[in-house]
Design brief:
With 132 residues, the chain is of the alpha/beta class. The protein folds into two domains: 67 residues, Roll (2,3-Dihydroxybiphenyl 1,2-Dioxygenase, domain 1), CATH 3.10.180; 63 residues, 2,3-Dihydroxybiphenyl 1,2-Dioxygenase, domain 1 (Roll), CATH 3.10.180.10. Helices cover 24% and strands 33% of the residues. The chain contains three helices and eight strands; from the N terminus they run E-H-E-E-E-E-H-E-E-E-H. The chain has a four-stranded mixed beta sheet, covered by helices on one side. Strands 5-8-7-6 form a four-stranded mixed beta sheet. The longest helix has 12 residues. It is elongated and about 55 Å long.
Length: 132
C-alpha cells in the first residue's frame, strides 16, 4: 500500500471533479466522500469537505478549501496514451467539459487542474534522443 496520496485543492467541487475523473479515465473511482461536521469558513455542515478517489491508479484526496489557492502548470497529471484515438478521447473529455487548451500537450479542466495528455510514442522518442 502506498504511503503517498495527492491532495488536490478545489473551491467547492471536489466531488464533481472526482466523479468526472472516475467516468473518464481507466482504473479511476471515488472511494469516499467525507462531509463537514460543522460550518467552516468556505462551507456549511453537511457539505462535502474531502473526497477520496483514484485517477489511473493514483490515490488522491480532493479538499474543498475555497478559492484561496489556484492550480498552475507547475503541477499536472500526465496521462500516457497509446494512440491518437485515446489522446483525442481524453483531451476532448477535459476540454469539452468546460476545460481549456493550453500549450505543449497541457490542458486545464474546469476545476483548474492541469493535465498533460501525452502520446507514449512522444515520451519514448524523447527518452531515446530521437526525432519525433
Amino acid at each position: 500500500m502506498s504511503k503517498a496520496t495527492l491532495c488536490l485543492w478545489y473551491n467547492k467541487d471536489a466531488e464533481e471533479a472526482a466523479n468526472f475523473y472516475a467516468a473518464t479515465f481507466p482504473d479511476s473511482h471515488v472511494t469516499a466522500v467525507h462531509k463537514a461536521p460543522l460550518d467552516y469558513p468556505d462551507g456549511k455542515a453537511g457539505d462535502a469537505l474531502t473526497v477520496e478517489f483514484t485517477v489511473c491508479g493514483i490515490k488522491c484526496i480532493g479538499l474543498n478549501g475555497g478559492d484561496r489557492f489556484k492550480h498552475s502548470e507547475a503541477f499536472s497529471i500526465q496521462i500516457a496514451t497509446e494512440d491518437q484515438a485515446e489522446t483525442d478521447r481524453y483531451w476532448n473529455a477535459i476540454v469539452g467539459n468546460g476545460g481549456e487548451e493550453s500549450m505543449c500537450g497541457w490542458c486545464k479542466d474546469k476545476w483548474g487542474l492541469f493535465w498533460q495528455i501525452t502520446p507514449r510514442v512522444l515520451t519514448d522518442a524523447m527518452a531515446q534522443g530521437g526525432d519525433v
